[in-house]
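Incident log, structure service

09:12 report received: a user says their structure output differs between two submissions of the same chain.
09:20 pulled the input from the user's history:
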Amino acid sequence: MTFRSDGDRLTVETRVEITVKVLFVTAFRLRHEAKEVWQSDRLVSVESTTDDNGTLLRVSGNAVADGFRITGEDGPFLASAHLLTSNAFWDSRIVRESRLIDVQHGGEIGLVTRQLGDEQVETAHGPVRAARHHMITPYYAGSVFYDSEGRWVKGLLELKGERVEYALAT
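09:34 re-ran on a clean worker, output below:
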């Protein structure tokens, strides 16, 4: 994930690539790229492409007067205006949400979270004490970690049986 801010506008780019090989043969591949633009903590646009083992998914969306209009494989969907996205692990508000905008498939998905306690997390800047939250959606499960100021420091996700680790680099 990369972040660029300009005043109250934040652009978040997400890039995920998972390749599972068995005896030198690719058994599974997932590539996901998304660009989200946020303004004053509200999603204003999203564009994403996902290659889920050969199935190409495209999602796009924009803020509209009565919500967030997102179009995916099942067509257009009007989501609530103030939802976070399925990529928004970087935002500690995600652990208080029950619905997310699905930037891989379109529409909304459910989310269940539970705080598990504090743990010591290794970062590029040394160890940090962080609260661990377990999360489950229809497409992935795992944990996200936030320091005492609510900053995201780590993510551990299980996706299609594979473990993906996100770590704070700077």
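09:41 both user submissions now match this output. Likely a transient worker issue. Closing.
09:42 reviewer note: The radius of gyration is 16 Å. The chain has a mean pLDDT of 90.
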